[in-house]
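Per reviewer request, we include the raw input and output of the structure prediction for the construct analysed in the revised manuscript.
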Amino acid sequence: MAIYFIIFTLFSFFAIIGKSRTNPSNQFESFDNSLDFVWFAVLIFLTMLIGFRLEVGGDWGSYLNYVLFMGSVNTLSEHFIITQDPAYTVLNWVSAKAGFSIYGVNLVCGLIFSYGLIKLCRSLPRPFLALAIAFPYLVIVVSMGYSRQGAALGLSLLAFQALTREKLFYFTVFIFLAALFHKTAIILLGAAILAVTKNRMRVIFIFSLIGIFLYFLFLKDAIERLFLYYYFESQYQSEGALIRLSMILLPSLLLLIFPGRFKIHPKEMNLWKSFAIVSLLSFLGFFIFDASTAIDRMALYLLPIQLVVFSHLPEFFGNRGEARQWIVLAILFIYLIILFVWLSYANYSIYWQPYRSILFEF
């Protein structure tokens, strides 16, 4: 457990000493500013933390069995089914045949997730505050617990940034790649319709065609099987779903009620407002529909709204320096409590403890 608190403390230290950037980094620039070495080091560190973990994560056993099974497959065509997350299938087959086993899979998924997360953090006014906010749940639980969806989320974060720059082609490419890792990423196509301000009718038409194509390619059989049977007939409940939905409720309400207090570019504001609306609908849907697991898994893509809102929150009350610092400390304290409560009391947190790495197993 200690390693998680040490890492969170390190990120929090940089968040406290860091200054707000009035002109956040361009989302698509490469590592070429004063934070070049620091953020490259963060990328490598997170990738290794996620990729080289040993028996860490609630689904470790099932992921290990899958890569071992793919290693027994002679040719990829024997088990290649387009509706079963094809990018993840190919990655497992290649990693198994190359002798990297589950560690090769986790490294690639960890790299994709970490790169997308860092690109988002660097686009925000307080990058290390955003990184510290992301660590307790997005990094530990999502990237170490749901490898496929972690990779999909990393690609989705790149898609979000492309959308704020109205680069719809790149947005579509990133979402398509994300869907190849985890089919639920397709739902993010709807964010474009809500977020874009120009040529909305054309976007609706084009994305509707893309959505229909991807639905029949990826989701049709899965929805009929998973949603109708597991989520409704079996009334399967996702433990902790309400807590995770509650985590995105406060930032969503702040953004919708006080949009003028956030110094967010209008293009970005349109995107995150759409996410705030979907977050509220997801929260209400948890109490209305008997499908908490479905809502919970889809809500994973909404979690980054915490990073965006709380990274801007220190400037919420203006330019009073002392007030800003207290807000940073308050945010960090809240997420420290979240980390402590999850590690200490969550039903499945035992699968994350202790943290072990293949690098230190001799």
